[in-house]
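Is it possible to get an amino acid sequence alongside its tokenized fold?
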Amino acid sequence: MYHDILVPIDISEPALTQLVVSHVETQALLTDVARVHFLTVLPAFPYYASLGLAYSAEAPDKERIRSEALSQLSETANKFNIPKDRIELHIATGSPKDGILELAATIHADLIIIASHRPSITTYLLGSNASAVVRHAKCSVLVVR
């Protein structure tokens, strides 16, 4: 079946993560060779500026933020019933859809399992990140709501 499964995780939205748990476990355990790549994408520095941090004397400590994100991602991955030797953790920076698509290409993902927010009138059917991933991914994408 699948050898490399990419699971984007929004560490600030645990409810979305809960939606994908059973799907990821099922797909990962279909074979004994599937690797599950958990990814979280951190916003780029200009995003912090938009939050008013541009007025502070110091820029945010990017390494500390990255380390905390990796720790949270590790805690999240541990909630999945998947052998630890088949899990890989990844951190990217920038736009979520770009980070997801870039890592999918790098690891030659066979499947992306992504949770999607309930759509609003602005996104119509899918969240904007899930929609972009579905449109541009070169592999199968399972969108979970």
Notes: The CA atoms of residues 91 and 109 lie 16 Å apart. The chain is about 40% helix and 20% strand. Residues 121-126 have pLDDT under 50 and may be disordered. The longest helix spans residues 62-77.
